Amino acid sequence: MKKCGFVIRVSTDKQARNPEGSLTNQLQRLQAHIEYKKTACEEHWIETGRYVLKGISGKDSFRSIEFAQLLEDIKSGKVNTIICTALDRISRSVRDFLNFFEILNKYDVEFVCLKQNYDTTSSQGKLFITIMMALAEFERTQTSERNKEATLARAERGLWNGGHLLGFDLDPNRKGYPIVSEKEKSLVQFAFKKYLECGSLMGTARALNDNGYRTKGYTSRRGKFRTPEKFGRSSMKQLLVNCAYIGLKEINKKRKLQDQAKLTEKERYRTVKAVWEPVIDEETFYNVHKLLKQNTKTKHNGTKIIKHSYILNGGLLWCGKCSAQMEGTCGTGKRGSKYFYYICKNKDCRFKLPAEEIERVIIERIKYLSSDSGLMEKLIAHTNDKLMKELPQLKHRKTHLQKELAEVKAFADGIMNKWTAMATDESSIFLNEKLNELGQRRKEIETGIASLETMIKEIERESINKELIMLALNRFTDLFDKIKPYRQKDMMRLVLHKAILSPTKIQIALYGRQPDTGLLELCKSDNEEIRCQTSNWLPTLDAEHYKRHLSKCKEIHILVKMYRHRGRGTSISLYDPLPSRPLPPPPVYKNIVAMAIRVQEYLVENPQRTQTAAGNHFGVTRARVSQLMTIIEKLPDDFISIMKTTEDQSLIKRFSGKTLLRIAGLSTPEQRQSYIKTIHNR
After folding, report:
1. Roughly what angle, to the nearest 10 degrees, separates helices 233-240 and 201-210?
2. What's the 3-state SS for 353-391?
3. Which tens digits make up the pLDDT trace of 504-529?
4. How many CA atoms lie within 13 A of 399 on its CB side?
5. What is the pLDDT of residues 349-372, one digit of tens each?
6. What is the pTM of this model?
7. Using CA atoms, how far apart are residues 156 and 146, in angstroms rounded to an integer?
8. Quick one: 539 exposed, middle or buried, by C-beta within 10 A (0-12, 13-18, 19+)?
């Protein structure tokens, strides 16, 4: 008996909406073929499935829901014969059709095409099918190229190529000539005007939504109605950057951000005069575009006055009392005055000092260092001496890693040489895991060796150079007061590594190399990306050793406002050594076996409770409770007794939940015991 599945497809929605079109014709021909087989050939053919692809291209047919259902029916045996009117109704992709053909052969499914009679059992028939599919794919490609050329030609003439745009209505009589919608025109003009006033995308969107404005509602070509929605950040930005509102048609808009020099003439982005009337004047549009670009670059609303620019934000300023990061913020006094200060992020510390005073001291100290070559020479010499002392240790670490890498390679080669003798169904899983582990370890060692070689080379060529540092500091002194506040932040990041602030002193650490970007480039162009090179930084010198040899002018004294009522100033020293950062606490891993025992004891003590109730009691899912019970049932008792009381974090880490489930999934107790022993001896 032939269980037939009908495959019917049309490429466009227009064809699918025609009640007497291609879909009906294909179905009629397929049903007539089955009737012919029943009456004339006396064969038992029945229709068991109908798979109708409406408005789906031949290149996408195999990714449709209908074809997914067809494959499921083939696997279940519901369909053993596939019928179509023509080969291109199945697909217009050679690769997809050949993969589909392999599935048909795998499940012994026959393929019948009414237009072309193919013998799929012979090599000649397979060759002929491949050739015909290649021709169908070629036809689809040619059609696609013609459509692209026609679309490009229409765009070059300034015509609209489809889609719905807020502020315009489509003219049913003249395709490509949108008509300005007077109702939506005021909405678009209000959006541009509002953004110039507030300078915020979300502020503009809220203003539009509060006034009852919504995005454009329309009915798509497939008959689906798109309901108007509230404006958001994305829809607001798309509206404000659309050149259609000033009467320009964008060509190759998707390639706007690509390198135009690498594209052909047809692929390059450009604009032409459109056939529709503009809604926004060019001056307003380009003012909005300029403000958008400026706000994106400076991360600040250009319409609002900058009351204070926290140039030490973003990890440059640290608290000397608790070693936490400090951030800039502001407050309002009783009389309405604004106060700007840096405060520690640690809620238990909350140490704070005035922002203007701290910034002024650090900037003046950096400027002073550029004029004192003697002090800089001592700082650089001290840093280079410290680096040279670390050189033997780095070389020793490199040698140790190279030896370990050789051992890993030798061990892996030994496993590969004995693979044939060792590989069995039971042991192959252990061999694969061991090789994967060795490969991961080899990658880690090679990365460590490369990092050490880079550090050694930098130290051997004396990575910190006095002339380069003095050049960078001199440029900082010359340019800092002449550039914009957001550029001052970038420049500070190029010179200052960190500053540690405490109630009695400030400790400054500078980068030990001139950045690749160059400080002069900060004020040349607003489009350049400024990146801070990761460099060695100059540590501060020991206070007791160097204070005896430096004059009093090396000390800075400032009056901190929060101490002014006490009638004394605060001494700020720049020569104390930087304190070492506290090490993070070691990670604590969960003992899965101990947790499984607790869950099992709970279920034994409460037999009326289900696994779901146990999961709620211990704060885990029912599936996790089931996994824990599997681990207890499958693992050896001696192993469970060891893991139940162990506090060895390395052992608990090795026997994680995934590893225990993998062990429990092995078929025999011998395999589980062997696997446990292998992991335990790592």
Report:
1. 100
2. EEHHHHHHHHHHHHHHHHHCHHHHHHHHHHHHHHHHHHH
3. 778 877 776 544 444 434 444 443 33
4. 6
5. 888 888 888 888 888 887 877 777
6. 0.43
7. 15
8. middle
